[in-house]
Amino acid sequence: xxxxxxxxxxxxxxxxxxxxxTTVASPRGISALIHTFVWMWATExxxxxxxxxxxxxxxxxxxxxxxxxxxxxxxxxxxxxYTTMLIIVGILSSMMWPGKAEWATTGGVLNAFYGGNTFxxxxxxxxxxxxxxxxxxxxxxxxxxxxxxxxxxxxKLSVLGxxxxxxxxxxxxxxxxxxxxxxxxxxxxxxxEHFPLAMAVAVGAALVYFLVRYMQPRALVSSVAAAMxxxxxxxxxxxxxxxRESLRKPWVAGQYVYSNQVVGADVPSVGxxxxxxxxxxxxxxxxxIFVPEKLRTIDDGNRVEAGRLLALTTCANCHSLTxxxxxxxQRYFGPGHSxxxxxxxxxxxxxxxxxxxxxxxxxxxxxxxxxxxxxxSTMSGQGAAQAAAQPTIRTE
Length: 396
Ligand code: HEC
Hints:
This protein has helices spanning 2-25, 27-60, 67-96, 103-106, 109-113, 118-141, 147-177, 181-190, 194-215, 222-247, 276-282, 284-287, 303-315, 339-350, 365-380, 382-389, and strands at 251-253, 257-258. By secondary structure, it is an all-alpha fold.
């Protein structure tokens, strides 16, 4: 019942929210995945139905079928779960590296699916999932009344946990070796410093916990198991998920859709062409579809507002536009800079795409100046309020 409620009922409630928010945050990333992997998702759906039916059968057929049948149902359920993981891992890894190199020219869903990164990620994820199983199951095992059974299960889970944690940590090294160069840069320089430490603490704490539990199975109580589950989720799973999402930057999908929804590379096999040359030739404001007509051409009256729109559409995926939050833009520029300094800096940093962690964002002189004007206006405080409140700012 715990498994059913924890994984499936809560999962069913959060999943539509996840799909909704990712589609809003990254429509082109989702679109790229759906166009490449629609049949993989259809397959996953079929397997997932087996999994969901399986978990209900497991819970509601206890005592109504013989033990052997129940074990068989558990096996089918487990295999179905594993298969959904395999499919999702293939899709996730293609977001980092789109499968085999020939996919870009020849296409083919399997070429997109089986990349250098797929099995490394599967190899890492499977043991970590077993380790999490061993931790979470402690909550259930702790409540067994039969002391002998409790000791047996607690010991078995501890062994599973130790083996799985060590195997997962080893596989993590393999996984890291399969990442693109940009991921290495993000990993080394751009992630919060406490992340590697948090992961190390989670792995270390899990090992100590499993060892203690192995030696003192009777000491296993629900509250400690629950606390340990929280530690694993907060110190292990959360940094891992954030790291995986960050490592992919500046891309959101397949090394061709940038995080800011600009297509940044050609993929002939799916008929996708880089938008960078068009943006270089005509500027972002003229080519982006969601720009209000009055901002397509910059003049003295709308410069700050156009700058804000540029920041919103091209930078806000990774930079907070206010003083707080994730990498706020204004933090990079101290007081006393002129609009021109900032504009030149932005062009140098962004136009060529030579930072590995940011997309190539071509800014012509007008747009760089507008963006600079907006960034400077946010530092005085009132400029931002004005830009937000007034559709057009009058020239003095
Ligand atoms: C894909 C994510 C992403 C996008 C989109 C993005 N940046 Fe960045 N940017 C980063 C990261 C990551 C850093 C490094 C963060 C840090 O060290 O504080 C960074 C750093 C910077 C810096 C500091 C100097 C440097 O070169 O490291 C500036 C300035 C900057 N970004 C401006 C912008 C502007 C302006 C835009 C929009 C036109 C933009 N960025 C879009 C991810 C992004």
